[in-house]
Amino acid sequence: MALSVPGYSPSFKRPPEIVRLRRKRSRSHGAAAEPTPALPEPAPRRAALAAGLPLRPFPTAAGRSGSAPAAARRNPFARLDNRPRAAEESLEELPRGQQEAPGPLLDSNQENHLRWEEVLHERAPVTDLSQTEHKPLTESEAPSSESTELPVDWSIKTRLLFTSSQPFAWADHLKAQEEAQGLVQHCRAIEVTLPQSIQDPKLSTELRCAFQQSLVYWLHPVFSWLPLFPRIGAAKKMTGKTSPWTNDEMVQQVLMSDWSVSFTSLYNMLKTKLCPYFYVCTYQFTVLFRAAGLAGSDALTALLSPTTRGLREAMKNEGVEFSLPLIEESVQKKKAHETSFGYEEEQAISDEDEEESLSWLEEMGVQDKIKKPGKISIKLHKEKHEVQMDHRPESVVLVKGPNTFTLLNFLINCKSLVATSGSQAGLPPTLLSPVAFRGATMQMLKARSVNVKTQSLSGYKDQFSLEITGPVMPHALHSVTTLLRSSQKGSFSAGLYPHEPTAVFNICLPLHKELDKEVVHKDLANCGLHPKTLEQLRQIPLLGKSSLRSVEMNDYICNWRS
């Protein structure tokens, strides 16, 4: 039955199209004087040519054999459904780095090896990265991504990957004297100012010592066999690790006692402005304590994220006054929007509709048998949004001023602060600080440089990379990028990998007055940070719920994307 269908060939063993083309080709050989008409360009190729992309012409069999060139002939077996879409679709919608076989711009003879993603990468225009969808401000207020300094980023990074055309050999194999000098510079908070460009970074002892200084951080508690950051979602990394305190309550009490002393020491240093900020990382949430004068705030602040309704209720019961800045901001915007559209009239109409919806029960005489919504159900309805925002960035909690001390006592006495089961059972939260505190241990971020050969349109070229892993805090990010500005002659790229639960720490807090820059520097002069780093941390956060993802610096001008 199938054989009677015109043009049908079982298993496509004899496509009628190829038979017809073979007949046509045999006739054309007999009439050499009659030129073969050129077929029109395929639609995807026309789209690429319209966009100005460099394409080689489709080679023919005659051209490959060295004979006279003939007109291009389209392969009937060439599939156009795997090629790029037509010109009416934007080229920006194509996925970057998409792997296809054959390549999307391969011709019918498999001889055009120019890949679509490589062409886009080479010819992609430089866009304004501040116009991304993650910007927290209005378009008129959004900061320009092109500047000499990066915006402040309060999230903790787990990994930094820098790439440059200049080698990072200077960051490897520090001498014993350079390592010792870098540690001393950190402990004594010695300010190091490098020139704008270093001619030979590998021979610059000052650069290598400053790099060692920027990698130092302080941690409590410390167990060499346990990764203590990140704590959220770290169950797999800790599974199978030895935890002698899991079933020993006495050891757990000693650990918590030491942790409480270290926590109190950090807070006292923060209050006296000898410590700029620190993090408390639990297995459920993270807390960022900041000294007065940082992030544009004139008071000591603490941000908790993510939180749950149970945690917030416990904080209320213990007298910890707090606010939900993102929720309050959303409510204010909603009220302003509803007021502009006659919200009061709409609310009155909705109330009348609710009364009318219950009046039909009276007409039927069953109003006494039907229970109207009580106070409990109304309360549950109002608090429904609080449950929905649990474990989300919108659940971030802000504590200010003297209430931070109440929060300190709450966290020390909170039983749910430490896991009771699992791989983190009995393990106190992690304290991270840029400066030393009681009971802390000095730790180093891990740095590793790699030299590779990368393929480009012009051939192979050298690509140098520097990878830094560990809990990279805001001051370390600024210090390292400042060093690379000098060592790489103002040109490098960076990929930043944040610990996602801490990205919300970049929200802009409600400010009551503008701080005096000179007063802030004077008050925090002994906090252990470089003046330029302190100046950056003083800025008002602009990234909102997002954080820096990539940085591109060219000729000392940086573009960033969040």
Label this structure with key terms.
single chain, about 550 residues, alpha+beta, 7-stranded antiparallel sheet, 6-stranded antiparallel sheet, about 15% strand, globular
Could you please describe the fold and organization of this structure?
The protein has 562 residues and is an alpha+beta fold. Among the domains are: 18-25 and 42-52 and 69-125, no CATH class; 134-201 and 445-507 and 542-561, no CATH class; 220-328 and 390-441, no CATH class. The chain is built from 17 helices and 13 strands. Strands 6-5-4-3-7-2-8 form a seven-stranded antiparallel beta sheet. A six-stranded antiparallel beta sheet has the order 9-10-1-11-12-13, with helices on one face. The radius of gyration is 32 Å and the shape is globular. It starts with 15 loop residues before the first helix and ends with a strand. Residues 28-34, 58-69 and 79-144 have low confidence and may be disordered.
